[in-house]
Amino acid sequence: MSEEDVEDHILQLWDQLHSSTTTSMSEEESNQLFQRIVNSSLVQQDIEPAKQSTMGWFKRIGAVAAVAALILGTCTFLFLRRSVSTTDYAALPLDTAIIPGSKKAHVILEDGKSISLVGLESRDTIHTGSYLILNKGQEGISYHGKDGLANRNREVYNTLVTPLGGEYMVVLADGTKVWLNANSRLRYPTDFVTDVRTVELEGEAYFDVASLESGGKKVPFYVKTRTQTVEVLGTQFNINSYGGQITTTLVEGKVALRYKGVSKPCLLSPNYQLIYTEHTHTYEKKEIDPYYFTAWKDGSFAFDNTPLTAVMADISRWYNVEFNYETDVSDVYFSGKISKLESFESLLQTIQWTGSVKFKINGRRVTIRK
Fold first, then answer.
1. What pTM was estimated for this model as a whole?
2. Count of domains observed in the chain
3. Which domain holds residue 72?
4. Of 269, 315, 348, 364, which one is least surrounded by beta carbons within 10 A?
5. Domain stops at, among 59, 86, 113
6. Which pairs from 261-269 meet CB under 8 Å and 24+ separation?
7. CB atoms within 10 A of CB 239
């Protein structure tokens, strides 16, 4: 379909909508709505209907369908606002305003001292004994040994901690890059001095592991969680260990996953994911599109036929809010992409546009119902 055809379809959809459903809107309001639709990033995406619910409007079938879905969804929201209780979107007091998360964390040194990384200027340097922590602004922090002072006899550990509503990136001494998601902890050596590289993770992180050789042999890299150890040589992968499951998603390379009480390792190839359920000691391996499990590090929420409860769990950690379910939503799934910089109210509006669920905000608690 040509660009002219797309434009004609958009205008036809808008004319139909404007004549039939927006008579209560002023001309200025309707024009603003149209511009919002045309300028929306959703128009740039391909879309297809979800597999299990009306919430999954946003996936790939073409730009015109995207605009149609967005237009209809927008108006659905407008009329929902008029028909439901005003408490559904009551104005929030400034002292409880819910804002998106941001890059914030603190690092705990070996002696227990905690250093906040919030407000540091780019290129600021933290001097800590035999090594330096260099702040690289939006890129995060990196570790560098001081000439002649690096302790090669033992490993000194630091811990990077992100709060609810925070994320951060660290470049380890070997060049490995780690993006740490909200409400997570990463314990790591300030320098790797043995024939293995080991870090410990709680929460979620994306790893881009640098290849390292010693004595002509590749030095393995291990990521330990509560009940899982991932062994890699040089690769990119994501580990989500929130709750009672550990989900490992491989983007590049190969990894071997080992579990407590399981003698044989599980091998994972690119575009595959392994989900380990801790209380049953069982795992499921499946082929996936890694994008939907790694988009968080690049500033987006991305979902592909994802249960609403899982969607809300991600949103809860980023905006530091609590969700309560008034009705059963186990049959509600969502597909789409939403910027992590969206205001909290705008994000909920986007979801409510689908017509599957409604929200009621009370401070930092949000009630969800069909």
1. 0.75
2. 3
3. 3-86
4. 269
5. 86
6. 265/231, 268/237
7. 23
